Amino acid sequence: MNWLVSSLVAMVCWGVWGLLLKLGSEYFDWQQTFIVTSIVTLTASLLVFFWLRPSINVHSAGFGYVLSAGVLGLVALIAFYSSIGSGKAIIVVPLTALYPVVTIFLSYLVLHEEVSLVNGVGIVLALVAILFISLD
Hints:
Elements: H1 3-24, H2 30-52, H3 61-86, H4 89-96, H5 99-110, H6 117-134
């Protein structure tokens, strides 16, 4: 599967994911949601591990980065589940989907990657879009 098809699949799945979590929040609190979805993730992780048998070098610098990303992803997921349970999906999902703005900012500061004028305009438009979406 090429990157474009994979990206579109991810977009659609994440879109439906947000809706399903909001629907589920009517019946489950964030802790129950976290446990159930984590069981699915753990099962998939074990299947990938035992099927593909990837080697994981825990002494690599990359291991620390990936492990830290996992911890931050976990914190974000718990915060998202908590937010979706009490907030409106129409606001919570787009707002949390602005995380690439943080990545862009950090990539500029840490990796010294350039932000083009088009990138900057896109960031501003995304922020304005969230502002408009969140107005009632």
